[in-house]
Specification:
Strands 2-1-3-4 form a 4-stranded mixed β-sheet, covered by helices on one side. The protein has 5 helices and 4 strands. With 113 residues, the chain is an alpha+beta fold. Helix content is 44%, strand content 17%. The chain has helices at 13-26, 41-46, 69-76, 80-90, 102-112, and strands at 2-6, 32-36, 54-57, 60-64. It has a domain at 1-79: Glutaredoxin. The mean pLDDT is 92.
Length: 113
């Protein structure tokens, strides 16, 4: 259950509100309440919110500031990095690995072949 405190004059708030509402649309177990801090000043003061966007999860401070969907998922799924590392370790070793793209990555791939 997410609660997002935001302000209509905030430039970062729409990104956070969009990320949280997207999660609620895709997962019926996720609930969200979007709160305009300017209208509920007593609530903002009781929670000691100094800046928006401020995101609470299950009544506890979850994040403060701009976050995108990817950042929410990374923070929620703490074991994701270990799972990805296990997948990579299970693969056979590479002779050549080109990391990157664009003209430099294409040129490196051509010369490595």
């Amino acid at each position: 259950n997410f609660e997002v405190y935001m302000s209509l004059s905030c430039h970062n708030c729409p990104d956070v509100v969009q990320a949280v509402t997207l999660m609620t649309v895709l997962n019926p177990n996720v609930k969200a309440t979007i709160i305009d801090g300017g209208l509920y000043q007593d609530e903002v003061n009781s929670r000691n919110i100094m800046a928006v966007p401020a995101t609470f999860m299950n009544g506890e401070m979850f994040a403060s500031g701009r976050m995108l969907v990817e950042e929410f998922l990374t923070k929620l799924d703490t074991g994701a990095n270990a799972k990805e590392a296990e997948k990579l370790n299970a693969k056979a070793p590479y002779d050549v690995l080109i990391v990157g793209g664009g003209p430099a990555g294409a040129a490196a791939a051509i010369y490595a072949a």
